[in-house]
Write the structure tokens for this entry.
Amino acid sequence: MAMTTRERMRRALTGEALPDRVPLCEISIWPETAERWRNEGMPADVDPLRWLDMDVIGCVSPDCSLRLPTGTICEDEETITARDADGAVVRSWKTHTATPERVDYLIKTPDDWLKYRDRLTPTPDRIPADYADTVARSHAEDFWLTFNPYEPIWWGLMALGFEGGLPFMMDYPDAYEDMVAYQTRLSLSLIDQACVIAKPDAMWYFSDLGYKDHMLFSPRLFRQRFMKHIKSVADACWERDVVPMWHCCGNVVEFIPLMIEAGFACIQPLEARAGNDVREFKPKYGNQITFFGNISVERLSLTPEDAEAEVEAKVTAAMPGGRYIFHSDHSLPPTVSLENYRRALETARRVGTY
């Protein structure tokens, strides 16, 4: 008998027991990709994931910002530049899907941080007003629901910027750790509040702490300065029967043992182009952590046969023991045809059944 998505995801993420098959997930399909698929036969009025009979993930994002005044600074035909609630100036594109460009920052020194840090007060109105309804809907419609506070280390880099934030981390380690500690306390409080209202399936941190070949900073610094904060969140989640999940772009070879030590259930999306390969990770780490993704969009963008070969090789290697979830190695760009993606899913269903 087929499992529900929530049953399947829980088993794949915790290793408590085998799921019936590898979960089939995707959390980001570019608008241009959906448009291409509609031109290739997908009905115009459908949710692509439901139409493809995949395991749907829903996300609830509490407000973990400094709650500073926001507003548009300038606008032209192609871009809009605005200040966000953490004081950063962000330029976004109107004409195409792309990562927004962060232009300037309000917090640049330890004194700036001290000026604003008390704004991270964990008030109940940081949780969306419809949160309880969303939890109820996740049960009724059978989708895996994650609660997504800001990941504390990544939030520091977003508030300071890369050019300022990474040197700040080295020059003012106490101040940076204080930023992480304040954001961690906010996470813990909001997770508590959420569980009182209605328990989500998981807590999911999103960060991009990896570059092409390595982490953005050393594993030693992570252990010295950040591990206790991050681990406290994972521990709190497990105590509440909420599964702690982690997203990290870039190369995660050095990051995987840190996530295992911190107690997180999974690492996602395992970008193939950054040197991650689940066929190497699985023999090394076994079922200590769930590998989530690693299906190369570059291979999915070639021929249906290439897509099939990519999925068969990686799903077969990663699925023993149950702790693997099918997902692209980041998100689905418009280079991936509907035919290729359907072949990928067919292959994952064929080889991914337990």
In short: The chain has two domains: 5-63+107-351, 69-105. The chain has a mean pLDDT of 97. Residues 207 and 239 are 23 Å apart (CA to CA). Residues 69-105 form one domain.
